[in-house]
Here is the input.
Amino acid sequence: MNETIQVNKFVELKYKVTDRKTGIVLTTVEFPLGYVHGVNETLAPAVAAELEGKSVGDVIEVPIDSKQLYGPRDESLVFTDRIENVPEEYREIGTTIVMENELGGTRNFIVTRMDDKTLTVDGNNPLSGRDVIFLLEILTVRDATEEEIEAGGAVVEEAADINDLLKVPI
Here is the structure.
């Protein structure tokens, strides 16, 4: 009998996010994402609610208005500067730059455009302002261990020493 997703179940899934208007895949997670259902906020509440009661092998689509998750796009978080003002290590599209404001708060900016003369960074979440569809495939549903419930996800056991890692008898 297949177990169903409910509070305190360990769940592994893979997913992709597509733009509802264009159909373009924005994000793909091929490796399993593991979490304990109902214990942490790994997933958006609307996604978690749709997973409730589902079991291994189920594939679901959940439309999400990203404005509800991330707010509307804020064009004041988009900056373009002359390329020579940007350090070499940041001159690649997709690079994340962590910037700090005068109060010590940080925000991630992603390099979104670059040409011979300018570079543009965007501090909006990449899904901000988009209508997207989460396509989720459920890979595992089982009772979570006490450690997983406490951690809110998978727990990797640490080996006592190198011999445990190598499984070499002393």
In short: Confidence is low (pLDDT under 50) at residues 159-170.
